């Protein structure tokens, strides 16, 4: 058992899907995994392990933001030996033509968080996806005929920022979408020499103002989940 995950040593698979929402973790376990066992209920942050097409896979809620996902990722890697971490999250589109339900593969992550400024003594670090997982996910998405975009995302510390137009600067420099965890995930994966990838579904658009409901965010992003499960090793 670790401080935030109430699992025994071998309860968690080598590949873990990481939704921010613990209810999305339960949805994935109930609808995609065979023989799923719930290994964690600490803080209501559900974690499950089950079988997908013969592969043992886990899914662990992470909560929202870099501090929260960092706790789970640290414990999954250092205390449970997890090797592949695949975030399955939602994001807000910053680009015209990137629409609700489109899929984004985060090749890299910019951030307004100070976490890496502190870690690297004021210098900049470029959090980057595992090329192996990224290529595999891209190939699978193309085979499925899905509308997938690959590029830079913004991992923001704020969902409700003070300046409603702050996203426009990032958009001007080609950032595809905003979410809240990937910079932390990729940095920790690099630190520990494991593989990480973020797959996102557009839940709302900062460009058009279109948005999905919280129930849709929990339950209807199946294409992203299937890509992540196909990528799992
Ligand atoms: O849907 P999840 O995975 O939680 O991801 C996005 O949604 C949350 C904000 O609503 C943040 O965690 C953001 O990154
Ligand atoms: O706009 C959005 C949508 C999802 N997640 C975010 O962090 N921001």
- The largest sheet has its strands arranged as 5-8-7-6-9
* Total of helices: 8
CATH structural architecture: 3-Layer(aba) Sandwich
DSSP strand count: 9
**Overall pLDDT metric:** 96
Give a quick account of the main beta sheet: strands, pairing sense, barrel closure.
5 strands, mixed, barrel
- Report the sheet-strand fraction: 25-35%
How many distinct domains?
Answer: 1
**What's the order of the H and E elements?**
EHEEEHEEHHEHEHEHH
End-to-end CA span: 24 Å
Bound molecule kinds, no repeats: 1-O-phosphono-alpha-D-ribofuranose, uracil
The protein's oligomeric status is: single chain
Q: Briefly note the CATH topology name.
A: Rossmann fold
Fraction of residues in helices? 25-40%
Ranges where pLDDT stays below 50 over 5 or more residues in a row are none
Name of the CATH homologous superfamily: Nucleoside phosphorylase domain
- The CATH first-level class comes to Alpha Beta
Computed Rg: 16 Å
């Amino acid at each position: 058992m670790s401080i935030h995950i109430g699992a025994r040593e071998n309860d968690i698979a080598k590949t873990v899907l990481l939704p921010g929402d613990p209810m999305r973790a339960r949805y994935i376990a109930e609808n995609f995994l065979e023989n799923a066992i719930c290994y964690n209920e600490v803080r209501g942050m559900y974690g499950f392990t089950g079988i997908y097409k013969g592969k043992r896979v886990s899914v662990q809620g992470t909560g929202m933001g870099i501090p929260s996902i960092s706790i789970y990722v640290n414990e999954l890697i250092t205390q449970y030996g997890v090797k592949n971490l695949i975030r399955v999250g939602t994001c807000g589109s910053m680009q015209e033509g990137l629409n609700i339900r489109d899929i984004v593969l985060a090749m890299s992550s910019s951030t307004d968080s100070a976490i890496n400024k502190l870690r690297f003594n004021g210098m900049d670090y470029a959090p980057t996806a595992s090329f192996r997982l990224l290529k595999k996910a891209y190939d699978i998405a193309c085979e499925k005929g899905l509308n997938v975009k690959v590029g830079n995302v913004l991992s923001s510390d704020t969902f409700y920022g003070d300046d409603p137009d702050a996203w426009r600067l990032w958009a001007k420099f080609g950032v595809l979408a905003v979410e809240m965890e990937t910079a932390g995930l990729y940095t920790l994966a690099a630190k520990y020499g494991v593989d990480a990838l973020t797959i996102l579904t557009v839940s709302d658009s900062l460009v058009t103002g279109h948005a999905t409901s919280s129930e849709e965010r929990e339950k209807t992003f199946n294409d992203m989940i299937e890509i992540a499960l196909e990528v799992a090793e």
